[in-house]
Task: structure prediction
Amino acid sequence: MEFEVAQSMIVNLSDLVPKEHFLRKLADNFPWENWAKPFEKCFKGEKEYGPKGYPVSVLLRMSVLSFLYDRSDKQTEDFVREALPARYFAGLSLLQPVPDETTLCRFRGRIAQKGKDKLLHSFFSEIIKYAQKKGIEMGKVQVLDSTHTNSKVNLENENRRQKENRKEGEPSSAPLDPDAKWGCKGSKRKKDPETGEIKEDKQWFFGYKCHTSLNQKTGLITSLLVSPGNKPDNEAARWLLENDLRQGLKITVVTGDKGYDDGDLFAFCGGKEIFPAVNLKKSRTEQKNEKLANKWREHKKLPFYEAALKKRYKVEQKFGEAKSQHGLGRCRYLGERKYGFQAVFTFLSMNLKRIVKLIFTPPKRRLSLCRA
Result:
């Protein structure tokens, strides 16, 4: 009888998960039900008959867990079933069944199938707006940059498959990932061992790009846009800044590498009273038109210019974290639309982690040395 009484007391999951646990803070302090409502449009007209499906909010939270801890759908299912904090965050009780991996896959596929990319970006923006409502003050400096993600396709196997088709006289089949493109992620200088000459060795990748805008003060990714790997960085810059402005950010300075040295971007910044602290190419500062060259040389001497360029490392740190801890180094799925799902959920998971830290971590106190 005593055993039965003890068992009956352990029924509330909230009694088992500490209030200071990260996942409990993430569950209790964010409006997950409101954020999930727009995604119900993807399932409109379904489940009118038969057993009731899982709440969309549960599937949304489990998707966040998948990218927060870099787990596959099957691993996420097991994680929620076995770990009480994960079950609590997902919004499930001790006795409720856990959605299986197939359900998570269908949830993701339904969003892509219905073409609800705007829902993903709206969800991403709602998190940024919520951070501002919670008192997180956004800085006035934005850092633009992009990171690449390799396609899921094994290129050696793909090339072998195409060659075998040609040998057998069959028409070449469609590529497994038709949206992925070759892109250049930069170049490295290498010394030729025979001639001793220094040569530029371009670094190529096959896949996609994720263009981002990072708020320098908070460390939050405020806007992102995905594209095939061959899209130039400067073509995404204006969209990123416009989206930042729509979210209410008061931008005064924008910085980026040489890929953002673009006349259209400078014109846009001029119209919005934003100072462009972009790493300028030599073609601007060393051009034949001495008047224009001097103009850009003076631009580089302004105090905002050097100070902003020194903040670019912060976005590189974010990219390193996204690839090493959240799996953004390689595509989980095939196609640009599904890569967009991966990129959005990767960076919004990182943002949620950062927001929890900003809200619940007290500011560091500076110790002053007092002289006797």
Observations:
- DSSP finds 16 helices and six strands in the chain.
- The longest helix spans residues 336-360.
- Residues 1-8, 366-372 have pLDDT under 50 and may be disordered.
- The longest strand covers residues 198-215.
